[in-house]
Write a structure and sequence with these properties.
The protein is α/β, with parallel strands linked by helices. The protein folds into 2 domains: 295 residues, Rossmann fold; 106 residues, Topoisomerase I, Chain A, domain 4. The protein has 14 helices and 12 strands. Helix 2 packs parallel to helix 5 and helix 9 crosses helix 10. The chain starts with a helix and ends with a helix.
Length: 442
């Protein structure tokens, strides 16, 4: 019997299929997931922001949709979530047009959006991912990822992030909820293999020390667990950024390559090298990265189309949290009359003043919760990795309610790292919560 099992293992490994050896780490139950090259291919694409200043996120998402569609993933197998307030925004001088590259093509043309506005939520995202049709009944198109044990699932999320969270227009998705959904999908045989491409600040924190390497999931992220991702392609006519560095790098690569001749690992290496603004990371089952990009970004019957090669232009990259300020400075530089300049300087001053309030508030919370000045200084200077999720989650929820809504406030979101430090210093949760209430009610 042992010899028979060993022979099966050798043959399976030779064929590149080690899925039968994968185990769910929590209960040790053996789950067999066959890898059928003819399984269906699915894509879930999400832009988690709204407002004109975040133009780039919906531009990225629209471009990703175009890649999946043109490469043969049926539209019924592509789910697109985006607020959809950019294409016909009053600030858009070309209604119905969204571009992801300077003078680039209209990536909004022909897209099918399944969930818009208030339906773009973390709860809906998780329900769609796990194929919960009942939960999504009478919401948007109701379309979900109806994947099975032989299918490939590609998930692309683009938006803001912070330690352990991804932002949606009015809420946040936390890493533990995402991981619990992925593990449950594995148990329920909801996929053969699944790949995540995540564009967000601190996006590595969604997977680092959380995503097992034996549940057939591979993830790449725009940044590690401690740094910003970067916006790029400022457009002076639109007064906003058109894309994000990591996202445009992988998509512009997919546009020009034969996806049957490029592996996920090769694309990762290309994007990693070209993204010199942050550290592009990979997590989970890295064996999957040896498979073709076409296995996840194209249909099973993929045929290469004429490659699209866009001209190289300056990136003008800035950290995501600096975008609001950078846009104002660009506008000020272009302003011709004194009245416009005065108004823009006033807006810049108000934004800088708001930042000062955010930073001082968080410092006051740290000082109030700390046992002494030495601990307080250590927390302000350190950069701990997030592991204390049970502490962190209620702390940031109360901070959002009582102090600053970091879903809408880029700079407040960036300061959540100090709340991570409070938890990682093992200060009691109640002590931190009391400090937040005291400081933010003062």
């Amino acid at each position: 019997m042992i010899c028979s099992l060993l022979l099966v293992a050798i043959v399976a490994c030779h064929l590149g299929d080690t899925s039968y050896l994968k185990f769910e780490p929590e209960d040790g139950e053996r789950v067999e997931l066959t890898q059928d090259a003819q399984g269906a291919h699915w894509a879930l694409i999400v832009a988690g922001s709204n407002f004109w200043g975040n133009y780039r996120h919906q531009a990225d998402a629209c471009h990703a949709f175009q890649i999946m569609k043109k490469n043969g993933i049926p539209e019924e197998n592509i789910v697109l979530m985006m607020y959809d307030d950019i294409a016909h925004n009053e600030e858009n001088p070309t209604p119905g047009v969204i571009i992801n590259h300077p003078n680039g093509p209209n990536v909004y043309e022909g897209i099918k959006i399944d969930y818009t506005g208030k339906t773009v939520t973390p709860a809906n995202f998780l329900a769609i991912l796990r194929g919960d049709s009942e939960k999504m009944k009478n919401i948007g198109t109701g379309k979900v990822i109806k994947s099975g044990p032989n299918d490939h699932v590609f998930v692309n999320f683009v938006d803001h992030g912070a330690p352990g969270i991804l932002a949606f227009p009015d809420d946040v998705l936390n890493a533990k909820d995402l991981m619990n959904t992925i593990k449950q999908m594995y148990k329920d045989k909801k996929y053969g293999q699944m790949v995540f491409y995540i564009e967000a600040c601190e996006s590595g924190s969604m997977f680092e020390n959380l995503l097992p390497d034996n549940i057939n999931v591979y993830a790449t992220t725009a940044a590690n667990a401690e740094e910003s991702s970067y916006a790029c392609y400022f457009d002076a006519k639109l007064n906003t950024y058109l894309g994000d560095v990591y996202s445009v790098n992988w998509m512009e690569d997919s546009d020009k390559e034969d996806l049957k001749l490029e592996t996920l690992h090769k694309q990762f290496e290309i994007v990693k090298e070209e993204t010199n603004t942050s550290h592009v990371m990979e997590y989970g089952d890295k064996v999957i990265s040896n498979e073709d990009v076409a296995d996840f970004q194209a249909g099973p019957n993929y045929q290469r189309l004429k490659p699209t090669v866009l001209p190289k232009v300056p990136r003008n990259a800035v950290p995501s949290e600096e975008v609001p300020l950078a846009i104002l400075y660009h506008k000020l530089s272009a302003a011709k009359d004194e009245q416009s300049q005065l108004k823009l300087r006033q807006q810049i001053g108000e934004l800088l003043e708001e930042r000062s309030r955010v930073l001082q508030t968080v410092k006051d919370i740290v000082g109030t919760a700390s046992s002494d000045i030495h601990q307080s200084n250590r927390i302000l200077m350190a950069r701990y990795k997030l592991t204390s999720f049970d502490c962190y989650q209620p702390v940031i929820e109360l901070f959002r309610r009582n102090c600053f809504d970091f879903v809408k406030n880029d700079y407040a979101r960036k300061q959540l790292k100090l709340l991570v430090n409070l938890c990682e210093e093992q200060i009691p949760v109640d002590t931190i919560l009391e400090a937040i209430v005291k400081v933010c009610k003062a």
